[in-house]
Design a protein that fits this description.
- The protein is an alpha+beta fold.
- It folds into 2 domains: 176 residues, no CATH class; 225 residues, no CATH class.
- Helices cover 46% and strands 21% of the residues.
- The chain contains 10 helices and 14 strands.
- Strands 1, 2, 3, 4, 5, 6, 7, 8, 9, 12, 13 and 14 form a 12-stranded mixed sheet that branches. The chain has a two-stranded antiparallel sheet with strand order 10-11.
- It is elongated and about 95 Å long.
């Protein structure tokens, strides 16, 4: 009953309700934009937030030399030869001067902890899957490279440092200026999660593409592992070394003396350009997030509030125009509470139409690629925020007019609206 009567109320004031629907669509678009911008800015922190809560240290490493051998450490497990009692070591490695034909690359190898958390924006193809680690051909993701290397391409990776050759397959191409896990050595330390990311630009890197490999896969290939059982004596593979951001975590009750001793060991056997505790990095990250929110929210909330007030005012005017009908319903035996439900249903239908229209529009734009160069996208957080906002709208738009009506008799309402 309420649904049918609410729909009739909506149709009786189609012009005003049309304006309300448009205003609500503007409100929802602003809401989606705000949440998308916030999510984009802080997604990089969210992906690392569980690690930053741990007891541990962050280091910016150029290399780590083995204390007893004349070699560079290549993977996180080898760091255990330098330090003691670590819960987890998370690092990345670089390959010395890799190339294919006349194209030189930067080549970085990520630990699985990085692969699972730090997924860059993709222009084409996909990021790594766990199933890739069992493949017989090395899988790689490449940065934007002006179309020279595309998804599905298979080519031979070489190095000037040895006769090593390795066939790799491109499974994904990142967007230009994609934010990848790494250290920007040309910028000062920021003391927060941004120190774990590097913006990679094809032009700024001298037209040198970046290739990302998964340590979990390449450790099974002799060319990337000189201690592999299939590696023949006298052969030389790709030269790897740990570089970039390295995180070492410990149990919560680990003595500070052990952590400090490990740091001293690292400083002795490596070149560490910067270091901080994970606790300080997390605190710095939260300060940065609050600073960014303080810059964004005042302007956005002002626009949102003004539009919301306009929508509520228009809704209140619509309800006021319906007072005559509600008075008749009241005389016919309905209570003001039941009349309020009809008003709520009518406003709810308008809200549902606006949400459906803005959602369909955004989904279509996403699939057509029209939102590719924007932060705007529709996800769970955006939809949840829109639903909460519409809930507040329905509360105000129905509560305020009916609060006035409850203090007025039906006869007076009829006389005033005749």
């Amino acid at each position: 009953m309420y649904g049918k009567m609410g729909w009739k109320d909506l149709k009786r004031n189609m012009f005003m309700n049309g304006i309300i629907i448009l205003l609500l669509m503007v409100i929802l678009l602003i809401t989606v934009s705000v949440v998308s911008v916030i999510e984009l800015r802080f997604k990089k922190y969210i992906t690392l937030s569980d690690i930053l809560k741990e007891n541990g240290r962050w280091y910016s490493v150029d290399f780590i030399q083995h204390p007893n051998k004349n070699i560079f450490l290549r993977r996180s497990k080898e760091v255990e030869d330098v330090i003691a009692d670590a819960k987890e070591v998370i690092s990345m490695s670089m390959i010395f001067v890799p190339f294919n034909g006349n194209t030189e690359f930067n080549a970085w190898c990520y630990d699985d902890a990085i692969i699972k958390r730090c997924v860059p924006l993709m222009e084409e193809g996909r990021w790594f899957r766990s199933s890739d680690y069992e493949e017989s051909i090395v899988k790689a993701v490449i940065s934007y490279n002006n179309g020279k290397y595309q998804v599905g391409d298979v080519f031979e990776l070489k190095t000037y440092m040895s006769p090593a050759r390795q066939e790799i397959e491109i499974i994904g191409v990142m967007e230009d200026y994609a934010s990848v896990y790494g250290v920007d050595k040309f910028s000062p330390s920021k003391g927060d999660f941004r120190d774990c990311y590097y913006t990679y630009s094809y032009d700024k890197e001298g037209l040198k593409p970046l290739i990302i490999l998964a340590n979990e896969q390449i450790k099974n290939f002799p060319n990337f592992n000189t201690e592999h059982p299939d590696f023949k004596e006298g052969e030389h593979g790709f030269q790897l070394r740990i570089t970039g951001p390295m995180i070492i975590t410990y149990e919560e009750n680990m003595e500070i003396e052990v952590i400090n001793a490990n740091t001293e060991a690292l400083l002795k056997n490596s070149h560490v350009s910067d270091r901080t505790s994970l606790k300080d990095m997390r605190a710095g990250s939260i300060r940065y997030i609050l600073y960014e929110l303080n810059k964004l929210l005042p302007v956005i909330l002002s626009a949102l509030l003004l539009t919301m007030l306009a929508a509520i005012s228009a809704g209140a005017i619509t309800v006021k125009k319906q007072l005559k009908n509600y008075a008749i319903y009241y005389i016919c035996g309905m209570t003001w509470k039941q009349c309020s439900r009809i008003s709520l249903v009518s406003a709810g239908i308008a809200a549902l139409i606006s949400l459906s229209m803005i959602s369909c529009s955004l989904v279509i734009c996403q699939r057509m690629g029209l939102l590719k160069d924007t932060a705007l996208h529709l996800g769970a957080w955006q939809i949840t925020s829109c639903v909460i906002l519409l809930g507040f709208y329905l509360l105000f738009v129905t509560a305020l007019p009916m609060q006035i009506v409850r203090k007025t008799s039906a006869n007076i309402v009829l006389k005033q609206n005749t």
